[in-house]
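Have a close read of this protein, sequence plus structure tokens, and explain what the tokens say about the fold. Thanks in advance:
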Amino acid sequence: MIYELLLEAKDHTLTRAELERLTGLCDRTNREIIAEERKKHIILSSSQKKGYYLPKTRDEIITFIEEEKNRIKNLELSLKAAKKELKRLDTRVQPDLIGEIVVDVN
């Protein structure tokens, strides 16, 4: 749905406001759709242009992969700190169970 609206050009991004106008959906719904579409397609976002676009070059895809790997690394570090704090606060939690803790944010 949104994927089909995007262009292969960093200079032609679609902003969140433009996507709202084009889809008739609210920003949150559009971002949820983008999250789902990202499971099948590469959809890039530009913080400078404040919009979404499709990759046009190999370098754009490589940059995307590196940025995603860095996000994962930072999330892993945050989880590690949270698990460490949980273990400190609740000594009844056994270390081998900490990896199994699931937090429902809904």
User: Anything to note?
Assistant: The radius of gyration is 19 Å. The chain has a mean pLDDT of 86. The longest strand covers residues 44-46. The chain has two domains: 1-56, 57-91.
